[in-house]
Design a protein that fits this description.
The protein is mostly helical. It is built from 3 helices and no strands. The protein is flat, with a radius of gyration of 23 Å.
Length: 105
């Protein structure tokens, strides 16, 4: 087997035409129902007396607990599906700071 550098014009000529894969979502959202809770539990389980980073891990568990509390105290009520679709059509970043209008949230 050898490696050969091809000119631009020859790339893909010998391969059969393939259809691309299905729609790829521009943003993959995590499952927020248990994301912060599972992170908090994981940080706490790693924060053992033998771990030299235990103080940092305890701090990180407090941060993730605060994130979970903030999620419940200040839920995001805005539906951004249309904004993401328009961004995809315009081939722009999903939440571009130059074009995305920020809310007070």
């Amino acid at each position: 087997m050898s490696i050969r550098i091809l000119p631009k014009e020859e790339i893909g000529k010998n391969e059969p035409a393939k259809k691309g894969i299905c729609h790829i979502p521009p943003v993959l959202f995590p499952d927020l129902n248990n994301l912060y809770q599972s992170r908090t539990e994981r940080f706490q389980s790693l924060a053992t007396a033998e771990n030299p980073f235990s103080e940092y891990l305890i701090f990180a568990s407090h941060v993730t607990r605060a994130q979970q509390n903030a999620r419940y105290d200040n839920p995001l009520m805005m539906d951004i599906t249309d904004i993401l679709q328009q961004s995809m059509i315009a081939n722009k970043p999903p939440l571009d700071c130059k074009t995305f209008i920020r809310t007070a949230h």
